[in-house]
Specification:
With about 210 residues, the protein is mainly beta. The protein contains two helices and eleven strands, in the order E-E-E-E-E-E-E-E-E-H-E-H-E. It has one domain: PEBP-like (Phosphatidylethanolamine-binding Protein), CATH 3.90.280.10. It comes from Marinobacter gudaonensis.
Length: about 210
């Protein structure tokens, strides 16, 4: 299979229009346009009955104590974990493109609803946990929400966009399912996959 994420080249920085947070000289970060990029795929094998899309960042600090704290840095030596940014499942087999801005166009405080979206079924991304302590922003975040790594992180973050061709019409996921639920449900059903990786940072020393 071949995947194209339009506007994002393999191994290159992700444009700000796709980001949840953009660099701000005054207060480190401000909200970005948060548009999902257009993605197009081809070459799905015979027997494909649906597609799933996963976008995740494997470079997120496992401990958030120093995240975005003045006078502190998030050490490059800290253990890192996956942070899911986009989960779409049960995409019909006759679909091979998601237009830019179709699943997200702007930051929506308190998030977007999980369940049926413009294309496929939206799962819950990890902004749900990350913003849980912010009274202005806490809520359930589903579908696409773009990069916003800690502005004091010593490493550049990587964002993997993946499309998976599946041998089932549906993963039978309901409610507020997350990235781990999607991975478990896909196990044994993936016929082919493709990935494009972009990078992003809000640390002015790394930009």
């Amino acid at each position: 299979m071949k995947l194209e994420v339009r506007g994002i080249e393999e191994g290159q920085p992700i444009p700000e229009k796709f980001a949840f947070g953009v660099y701000s000289e005054e207060d480190h970060m401000s909200f970005g346009p948060n548009r999902n990029p257009e993605i197009v795929w081809e070459g799905a094998p015979e027997g494909t009955k649906s597609f799933a899309i996963i976008m995740f960042d494997p470079d997120v600090p496992s401990v958030a104590d120093d995240v975005n704290q003045e006078g502190k840095t998030v050490s490059k030596d800290l253990e890192r974990v996956d942070f899911f940014h986009w989960l779409l499942v049960d995409i019909p087999a006759n679909i091979s493109r998601i237009p830019e801005g179709e699943d997200s166009d702007g930051v929506i405080p308190k998030g977007k609803e999980p369940g049926p979206g413009p294309i496929g079924i939206r799962g819950v991304n990890n902004y749900t946990q990350f913003l849980a302590g912010n009274p202005d922003m806490n809520g359930t975040y589903a579908g696409y929400d773009g990069p916003c790594p800690p502005w004091n992180d010593e490493i550049i973050h990587h964002y993997h966009f993946e499309v998976h061709a599946l041998d089932v019409d549906t993963l039978a996921l309901e409610g507020e399912f997350d990235g781990n639920d999607v991975r478990e449900a896909m196990a044994g059903h993936v016929l082919a996959s493709a990935r494009v990786t972009g990078t992003y940072t809000l640390n002015p020393d790394l930009r």
